[in-house]
Amino acid sequence: MTSRDDDRFRVRPGPPKARQPSGGQRFVSRVLREANKAGAKPSTKSSRGSARSAAKLGRGHVAAQTAGRKLGPRARRVVIKARYVVLKQAGARSVETHLRYIEREGVDRDGGKGHAYGLTTDHADPAGFEERGRGDRHQFRFIVSPEDAQQLEDLRGYTRHLMTRMEGDLGSSLDWVAVDHWNTDNPHTHIVLRGRDQTGHDLIIARDYIAHGMRLRASELATEWLGPRTEREIRDGLLREVDQERWTSLDRGLQQWAQQSRDGVVELAANADAARQPRTLLIGRLQRLTVMGLAEPDGINRWRLRPDIEPTLRAMGERGDIVRTMQHALGSQQREMAVFTPGDRAPPVVGRVVGKGLADELQERGYLVLDGIDGRAHYVALPAGTELEQFPAGAVVEARSAAEGRAVDKTIAGLADGGLYRTDHHLALLRAEPGRGDPQEIVAAHVRRLEALRRAGLVERVAEGAWRVPADLPERARQHDAQRLAGGSVTLQSHLPIERQARVIGATWLDRQLIGGAAGVADKGFGSELREALRQRSDFLTGC
């Protein structure tokens, strides 16, 4: 026997001995599946060399591989957000609501209403587009935001050229409408694309085309229209990123260099990749991150990044956006600012609506800015799909954690006799106790809640004005709200501003505050205005 270790024995692996169970997976398939879970990229070819990965299924896969080959580092940048909507799951009014939103007031270049357009018309018919897509299985929604949209000027022409190139890539004519939005610092275009091709079959777009190909086509087009970015434009853009309290392209590059190094340290002197960016900008950014506590020096020209640098900077960027949104809504009014975070211990927030909008235009997640009765301004995120129209400016709104449960559910359960809630019984009790508000309106509010719970399968309507409710309804309803509303709910207390409520004939939200003793009302901000309105309401009721 030789003395060399590698000659002592030789491993000859054979095929797995275990038999494939009935209906089970092949051994190779199981290995590839587990490798894919771990982040590996298995070969797209099967043992027969004919299988394709899921990313290659659909139209546009070949175009996604060839798009952007001529783009260099000076190419114009375009951000595209995409959403695939299954219409049956989204709801019957999803398309109508989305089209109405993108055509809303204040988004036009002149501050007016948005106008839908198509490939050959400046006045597309959203209702007709919705009608044509009634039988579609799905729909694509895109937001196209060129970095230099202000310089493009003709954003409609740019969008039409982009959609024409997409038709060539996908091998089919496309049915779409678009609306340009000029109401932000970054002008962008909302595109709604039907999920049918020119033959009437489902339009299936390859995943890699949606993820990369479309963006590269948009970048190619912007570069052709405006020319490549100059050295000065690139440097000015990076210079603006040095002091920003958000996740930037400089941070992304630094993170990649740290991950590629053996000890997880950014070393500018030795790292050849660092030469792609001006060294002074990288040092400036690292020094800024050090002040923010997200990086620390680790020797000469060496820095160590904090592991959670990306989520921290992204959260800081979102926080900064929220602060700017609140400042814009409040105008010259000075308020302490807070973000309403639903939780088991989060107290309810009551206030007047001074601002509203969409924080996520693609997912249609809205927000409200409330001038609270506690003297502070509050940013309240709304559940996806919430209609902003139900919260008019000046209305009184209450935000609370869904985990607290609703008083209306407890009332329904308490009035249920033998598990049966009856509106006539509730109405009789209210009329026997005058001074509690309009009995008809109170019962109507309980009926609306019961209908919502019925649709959720928590209660059963057995007759007109009668519902069968479980004994543990408050807990079941609380769990349902927590799941549906992601931990929080927002309720409209009164659509009337408090100035009008002070002299209204009939029960108002101000009356409930008078009965409750105006608990939690501060002496500043909206709280002081509410105290004055309560005094006027009291005088008005006394005079009646």
Q: What multimeric state do the chains show?
A: single chain
Share of helical residues: 25-40%
How far apart, in Å, are the first and last alpha carbons?
114 Å
Averaged pLDDT: 84
- Shape, principal axes of CA atoms: globular
Order of strands in the sheet with most strands: 8-11-10-9-12-16
**Main sheet overview:** 6 strands, mixed
Which strand-content bin applies to the residues?
A: 15-25%
**Tally of DSSP helical segments:** 19
Structural class: alpha+beta
The tally of strands reads 16
Low-confidence stretches are 1-6, 17-25, 37-52, 271-275
- Spatial extent as radius of gyration: 30 Å
Task: Characterise this structure.
- With 544 residues, the chain is an alpha+beta fold.
- 39% of the residues lie in helices and 17% in strands.
- The chain contains 19 helices and 16 strands.
- A hairpin with a 2-residue loop joins strand 14 (460-463) and strand 15 (466-468).
- The protein is globular, with a radius of gyration of 30 Å.
- It starts with 26 loop residues before the first helix and ends with a helix.
- Mean pLDDT is 84; it is low at 1-6, 17-25, 37-52 and 271-275.
Give the helices and strands, then pairings.
Layout: H1 27-37, H2 61-66, E1 78-86, H3 87-90, H4 94-102, H5 126-132, E2 138-146, H6 149-152, H7 155-170, E3 176-181, E4 188-194, H8 207-226, H9 231-241, H10 249-260, E5 265-267, H11 279-291, E6 295-297, E7 302-305, H12 309-330, E8 336-339, E9 349-360, E10 365-372, E11 376-381, E12 396-401, H13 407-415, E13 420-422, H14 423-431, H15 439-455, E14 460-463, E15 466-468, H16 473-484, E16 488-494, H17 498-501, H18 509-516, H19 526-543
Parallel strand pairs: 8-11
Antiparallel strand pairs: 1-2, 2-4, 3-4, 5-7, 6-7, 9-10, 9-12, 10-11, 12-16, 13-15, 14-15
